[in-house]
Design brief:
Strand order of the largest sheet: 6-7-8-3-9-10
Structural class: alpha/beta
Number of strands: 10
Order of helices and strands: EEEHEEEHHHEHEHEEHH
Strand content: 25-35%
Distance between the termini: 35 Å
CATH topology of one domain: Rossmann fold
Largest sheet: 6 strands, mixed
CATH superfamily of one domain: P-loop containing nucleotide triphosphate hydrolases
Helix content: 25-40%
């Protein structure tokens, strides 16, 4: 279980995440919101790339910043960064070395590259990869340490329709393996298709958390989402 308790992030007078409180205990949870809603900031605080201004994040009862979670968490940033001269295989091995010895792990890397669909490009330099191939490699990198919790920031961005379908299938496979997946996105169709529950975020505030069907209440997700955001805007002072 992941718990957020009164989580806040501010830069001087600008509050980016505002008193965010939520408990998550489902296989695939989607953070849904417009660009700039605070989704990426929350994700970065979970994995320790940003420090909260206030509040806490706990995983299984311990602070997410605790060293015990280093090997339990996988993270794919919105724009993955790569060393362009490396091959896909070399990059996975390099990333895995951050977690410990990698001797005998080559079959693991090959399996990951097959899982995300770029095995045939394993020995090509990353500088030759397309946008979609880079997204797939970023996904593989997030899995390299066999994490229990996977945090993905816009993982389907830049993929063609076939690639999107394949990566969503990978996420469903991770669910069946017993892993927890946290997904940041502004694409409503992805949330509706694969997420067990969602958190609706707008300007750093949590407007809703729960099941997708319950949120929609018989309306199309896009229409319901727009309605909730507009209602929140009307109530602002």
């Amino acid at each position: 279980m992941v718990d957020f308790s009164h989580l806040t992030k501010a830069y001087k007078k600008k509050v980016v995440v505002d008193d965010f409180t939520l408990s998550v205990d489902v296989p695939i949870f989607g953070f849904l919101g417009q660009n700039g809603a605070g989704k990426t900031t929350i994700m970065k605080m979970i994995v320790g790339l940003l420090a909260p201004t206030g509040g806490t994040i706990t995983i299984d009862g311990a602070l997410s910043s605790h060293p015990i979670f280093k090997k339990k968490l996988g993270y794919m940033p919105e724009t993955p960064y790569f060393y362009e001269h490396m091959t896909g295989m070399e990059f996975l091995r390099f990333s895995d070395e951050l977690f410990g010895p990698t001797r005998g792990r080559t079959p693991h890397y090959e399996g990951l590259l097959k899982k995300v669909g770029i095995f045939d490009a394993r020995n090509a330099q990353i500088r030759t990869y397309s946008k979609g191939m880079r997204q797939r490699l970023g996904f593989a990198q997030a899995l390299v340490n066999d994490p229990e919790y996977l945090f993905l920031d816009e993982p389907l961005d830049g993929l063609d329709p076939i690639g999107r379908r394949e990566m969503k299938a990978v996420m469903m496979g991770l669910k069946h393996e017993g892993r927890k997946v946290f997904l940041n996105t502004h694409i409503l169709a992805d949330v509706e298709e694969i997420c067990d529950e969602v958190g609706i975020i707008h300007q750093g505030k949590l407007l809703y958390a729960g099941g997708v069907k319950e949120f929609c209440a018989g309306m199309p997700l896009e229409e319901r989402f727009t309605e909730v955001v507009e209602e929140h805007e009307k109530q602002r002072p």
